Amino acid sequence: MMRYPELKMYINGSWRTAASDGPVINPATEKEIGRFPIAQPQDLEDALAAAHEGFGVWSQTSPKHRADLVREASALLRQRQDEIAHSITLEHGKPFSQAQLEVIRGCEFFEWDAGEATRTYGRVIPSAPGVKYIVHHQPIGPVAAFSPWNFPMSQPARKIAGAVASGCSIILKAAEETPAGAMHIVQAFHDVGLPPGVLNLVFGIPADISDHLIPADEVKLVAFTGSTAVGRHLTGLASNHMTPVLMELGGHAPVIVCEDTDVEAAAISSAIRKMRNAGQVCTSPTRFFVHDSIFEQFLDVFTKRAAETIVGDGMESGIEMGPVANERRLAAMSALVNDATECGADLMTGGHRIGSTGYFFEPTVLANVPDHARVMQEEPFGPLAIVNSVDSLDTAIERANSVPYGLAAYGFTNRADYADRMVDKVEAGNLSINTLEASLPETPFGGVKSSGYGREGGAEGLAHYTVVKNVSHSVSIV
């Protein structure tokens, strides 16, 4: 029988508990399922020392050996897919089948970056006889990484994969709400023999951990996925010490639906994707700008499919959407809906909590939402979609670009000129046309504007985990 794991920290190759701890709550039942350890200052000092020593060993390990070990850990994670998915569903609430897919996605991040570990090529720059200019890419050093609660396994995987594959050591502060996914990853690396200190895992009070780790001399890179507000704060901390950052921050993804598209197919696929992970996805399609001529049809089909979403405990079969993360998300969703309707928006479906046990919120569709409503500027991070009409593609692009975020954007069209205009004009780090897939291991992922800095995945994925060193070598003294 699969059980939720006993939660521990991992420092210098060993598991450890802490003097104090906090509760992990199942959002579907509101019951405590575990206790996470709260790191104390000495734990963090031990992690910094371990990461420093671990980097000295791992940075001198051949890329092929690093890649082989990462692949071995990924193979173990694939074998343990159901056990990990069970933990994720308990702590996060997402349907078990979606948790299984998340485990596989995390493994794909590891496998892609393992390949990239052997392809961090340098170059030789042409020069005069007797002189060589050689560019090297070397591991940057110990990394302080912070992962969010919405994807308990795949988000830690992205940070760990980039650091370990590139030859860095890492201290990961995983989310206290969903700690088990990161623990399973660490266990797999422990089991395949990763040297002590290369990978360290801590939990605790976020501000205390970031205030301790980021200013430390040992830390050479800060990698964070989370809200724009927290990302700005951590970037400020890092800038005081000239420490580079990799920031994947919030979004408020627009979807442009042109008049030439297959309306029903676009509406159904959009409604399904909007409710994935209860809308708690930074790339979730949220602001739909639909051409006037197809607006009513799109809204009708979208609303109908959203209302049909099967909501419940992720451990039950057939469930499409689980609860939101906590009571704060319930309150935030209700506040945004109430504000929008007071501003004149039409509530097409949903808008309320479901029942009194568990953090379940109805799949919600708002239409004709005025620009001054809060939800037009604030990412809802929940199962809420906005559907507004526009008179042209140019208007849709203008509306899409009207927020300070630029992480993901989507478009539906069969016209090459429309697609070309979106590519040129939509302000987003990731634009998907006729698909709602925003991120793959083999493609670079990251935002523009207030949605962050840097890229994870693709050929660019290890760039932030390395530094460029130019070597000028003359065969004689000049």
The CATH topology annotation of the largest domain reads as Aldehyde Dehydrogenase, Chain A, domain 1
Major beta-sheet overview? 7 strands, mixed
For the largest beta sheet, what order do the strands appear in spatially? 14-15-16-13-12-18-19
- Share of residues in helices: 25-40%
Describe this protein with a few key phrases.
478 residues, alpha/beta, Aldehyde Dehydrogenase, Chain A, domain 1, Aldehyde Dehydrogenase, Chain A, domain 2, 2 domains, seven-stranded mixed β-sheet, six-stranded mixed β-sheet, 22 strands, 36% helix
Secondary structure layout:
Elements: E1 9-11, E2 14-16, E3 21-26, E4 31-37, H1 41-58, H2 63-79, H3 81-92, H4 96-117, E5 123-125, E6 131-139, E7 143-146, H5 154-166, E8 170-173, H6 180-191, E9 199-202, H7 206-213, E10 221-225, H8 228-239, E11 245-248, E12 253-257, H9 263-274, E13 285-291, H10 295-307, H11 327-342, E14 346-349, E15 364-367, E16 384-390, H12 393-400, E17 405-406, E18 408-412, H13 416-425, E19 430-433, E20 448-449, E21 452-453, E22 466-474
Parallel strand pairs: 7-8, 7-10, 8-9, 10-11, 12-13, 12-18, 13-16, 15-16, 18-19
Antiparallel strand pairs: 1-2, 3-4, 5-6, 6-22, 11-21, 14-15, 17-20
Describe the structure.
The protein is an alpha/beta fold. The protein has helices spanning 41-58, 63-79, 81-92, 96-117, 154-166, 180-191, 206-213, 228-239, 263-274, 295-307, 327-342, 393-400, 416-425, and strands at 9-11, 14-16, 21-26, 31-37, 123-125, 131-139, 143-146, 170-173, 199-202, 221-225, 245-248, 253-257, 285-291, 346-349, 364-367, 384-390, 405-406, 408-412, 430-433, 448-449, 452-453, 466-474. The protein folds into two domains: 9-249 and 451-470, 3-Layer(aba) Sandwich (Aldehyde Dehydrogenase, Chain A, domain 1); 253-441, Aldehyde Dehydrogenase, Chain A, domain 2. It contains 13 helices and 22 strands. Strands 14-15-16-13-12-18-19 form a seven-stranded mixed β-sheet, with helices on both faces. A six-stranded mixed β-sheet has the order 9-8-7-10-11-21, with helices on both faces. The N and C termini lie far apart (72 Å).
